[in-house]
Amino acid sequence: MFELDMRSRKPIYEQLVDKMKELIMNEVIKPDEQLPSVRTLATELTINPNTIQKAYRELETQGFIYSIKGKGSFVNPNNQIKDLEKIDTVKKELEKLVIEALYLGIPASQLIKLIEELDASKGGGESND
Amino acid sequence: MIEMREVSKKFDRFTALEKVNLSIQKGSIYGLIGSNGAGKTTLIKLLAGIYLQDFGEVTINTEPVYENIGIKQKIFYIPDQPYFFSQYTTKQMARFYKSCYPSWEEDRFQRLAEQFEVNLNQKIHTFSKGWQRQIAFILALSANPEILILDEPLDGLDPVVRKKVKNLLIHDVAEREMTILISSHNLREIEDICDYIGIIHKGTLLIEKELDDLKADIHKIQVAYKDGTPPDKLLLNLNPLHIERRGSVYLFIVRGEEAAITKQIRQTKPVLFDLLPLTLEEIFIYEMGDIGYAIKNVMV
Questions:
Q1: What pLDDT was estimated at residue B295?
Q2: Would you tell me how many other CB atoms lie within 10 Å of the CB of residue B139?
Q3: Dihedral sign computed on CA atoms, order B34, B274, B258, B291
Q4: Which chain B residue shows the shortest CA-CA distance from A49?
Q5: Tens of pLDDT, residues B181-210
């Protein structure tokens, strides 16, 4: 289904959570679709089943999936969390860019102006991300 | 559940283990790492019921292990040098284990032998070191043990076989909640599959933690400042385990919560800031460095 980077410094459990979120947000795994079982995924990826269990638990607390006892885990059809998550990632990316811009010497006032301009034009035509 | 409580073991006047407390949950893959001569093998032999402790308790499912046949039938131990009776073939060795382990599964033995393409009628000592290890794994997994104890298990196996063996181990953990204890020097090797880590040094267990928690608690930080040096106040607050300077970039190893550290550093307005998790190898080196074990001695 997907590959994890065993050489990466990022803990496997975090990689798993992020990968799953990505798949859910891009609807590769559809709402209410069942996720692969812990056992299947463990053998498939050669990863400790406890790590996968932990990742699934984390996804559940974050509201991305729900589990039915004896049946397995399923994708939560509720979009709200997905949007919140997306807002969060976009904000973080933006933050990075803004810092870079500030270090490059673009004055804050100019950035604010840019945002206001974009906001104003958004109402007229196509929306911008 | 495997437990050691206040366990000490001496050989003559040499103290191999001192007041070790350890617990391993069912279905967990526990990685035991430590410097040379730290007491890893002694600890393993106590758990396998080969040695008797001088003090303390060693229990599996709350029963003492030593001379306890019922418990020992649930444990399979592969030492760093697999042992086979001299002149025995794999088939003969299998017959022996079948008589020891009630949970032995003949079907599985045949399947595994086929999968690894082992000639069952060839004498084991005529096989290479790597093959002998594979045979040890085949025998171990055919016995369906509740607990598998491995001392330097993947040494001398080629990458393909290693992957195959790992997969089989994971399969048994996932399917029947087998518990595995692995001791190894090859930290990269066990980093992928362990969920719990114990670090042992000079006979005492320094750390016992979930691998993810261990990683979440220690960070590598790279920072650089416009005027060259980081503010003294920051250093005082972070109290790094290790500081290194590479040109104008500073490298810290810091313990603590990621969010809190990030906030503190952001406040000092660095021109460059990176926070990375450590590899198990690095955690080992810095933790050991912290208690005065020279880094050059533990490079793997």
A1: 47
A2: 25
A3: positive
A4: B174
A5: 999 888 887 888 899 999 998 899 988 998
Task: Inspect the interface and report whether the beta carbons of B29 and A13 lie closer than 8 Å.
Answer: no
ipTM score over 0.90, yes or no: no
CA-nearest residue to A7 within chain B is B188
Taking an 8 Å cut-off on Cβ atoms, the answer to whether B170 and A11 are in contact is no
Q: Which residues of B touch A9 (CB under 8 A)?
A: 276-279
Question: Residue B39: exposed, middle, or buried by beta-carbon count in 10 A (0-12, 13-18, 19+)?
Answer: buried
Look up residue B4 and give its amino acid: M
Helix H or strand E segment including B10: strand B2-11
